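re: ur question from yesterday

yeah so i grabbed the chain u mentioned. its 162 aa long if i counted rite. heres the sequnce exactly as i have it in my notes:
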Amino acid sequence: MDPKKLLGNVPWITKEGYFDPAQFPIDSVLKQALSDDDQEFRTGLNLLRSMYGHGRTEAGVFLLGVLVNCEGVWEKRIAIVEAMTGMHTKPCADLLFGELKRVKSSNTTRRYLGAVIKVLSSMPSELIEEGFETLAEDRSFSPKMRDKFRAVLEKGVFEDYW
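ran it thru and got these structure tokens back, copy pasting raw so excuse formatting
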């Protein structure tokens, strides 16, 4: 039996019965991504990431906005940054480089900064090379951080996840 006939008008279910994130309404997903409930929050992030991966560029814009809007809850910020994996855009790279400059490295922020570097290092070199070169020469960062930035440039990937 055709799932469309069984379920009615639900354009996000394909004729074969699969979920199509490109057709799913985004309003409820945004509410989930802003939820204080951890499970809803993570579900919302995963759906936004999936929607972006299926061509919904607005889902990527919302992910960037969720990061900008997130308070200093580092676990949430890590989850948001990880959801940006695969967003190979200049605005995403610029925002993440801005995070590296804005957030001071400490025991509390180290995992977050590691997640930012890891996502950046997965982007094409034309989006990140100049940014990492600038950071690697910036004396406001510790020698250890500058070495991490150089390692990304040399290896093309961030292997040392702190």
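noticed a couple things. The chain is about 65% helix and 0% strand. also The mean pLDDT is 87.
anyway ttyl
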